[in-house]
Amino acid sequence: MLKKKPETAAQGEQIQQVPVAELHPFKDHPFKVLDDEAMLKTAESMAQFGVLMPLIVRPRAEGGYEIISGHRRQHAARLAGMKTLPVIVRQLDDDQAILQMVESNLQRETIRPSERAFAYKMKMEVLKHQGARTDLTLSQIGEKLWSVTQVGAAAQESERQVHRYIRLTHLIPELLELVDQKKISFNPAVELSYLTADEQRDFLQAMEDSKHPPSLSQAQRIKRLSRAGECSYDAMLDVMKNAQLDRLTLKNEAIRKYFPRSYTPRQMEETILKLLEQWHKKRQRSQER
């Protein structure tokens, strides 16, 4: 579980106990609450020590409270059999609530690509909305660029990377889940997001039939097929079956000298990929400058 300093109420705010049953999830909450090992550990910790950090909520017109920050804690409390939870109630409009919900969750150590994608999109829409309200001279394109800049600056991401994450929201759920499971890499997934929903479903079948995930060059070729109106199942399967065109082989004896003798081939591969990722980010920053 991510360790945080205990949260204290701001001036004028009070921490109060609220029944767990009166706490409801945020509408369109993009961050998944999973019954994984970390959740079970959180529930065990709560059962033993209680809740160290209050949830942030806002009142609902229909009764009860909407969770801004603390969805995982509420679920863990249910698993631990707790009846009430400490909360800080804040009066927030929809825009304020979305911004606080996104920011509080983006601080987590582990965030799935789909979660980051929808969080960035929600935040960008709010900032676009606020920009439209506060500066009526902004064009629609200007509002979008300004909002992407703000999202990227807060997340320490380039504008291009923010755009690429938001592209993932155009994937059908089945493909997006494969991205979260790391069965489809991020860069090919971005290219596939330009396919129509029907084309994506055909691609999913072609991927299953070819028995391997797409490389970046394969995804780019399939994207070009889509733009040309030639993106049929058969055409995509033909691209996916030509995996040998995209295969890169590094001979063990050629790279072994750069690694400690104790390193396994898997450790060598992971190290190479990390170094390539660092090189890629450095190259992106240079291009942006």
Word description of this protein:
With 289 residues, this protein is α/β, with parallel strands linked by helices. The chain is 55% helix and 8% strand. The chain contains 13 helices and five strands. It has helices spanning 37-49, 71-79, 94-105, 113-134, 140-155, 159-167, 173-180, 186-192, 197-210, 216-227, 233-241, 252-255, 265-288, and strands at residues 15-19, 23-24, 55-59, 65-69, 84-89. The chain has a five-stranded mixed β-sheet. A hairpin with a 5-residue loop joins strand 3 (55-59) and strand 4 (65-69). The longest helix is centred in the C-terminal third of the chain and has 24 residues, at 265-288. The chain is globular.
Sum this structure up briefly.
By secondary structure, the chain is of the alpha/beta class. Helices cover 55% and strands 8% of the residues.
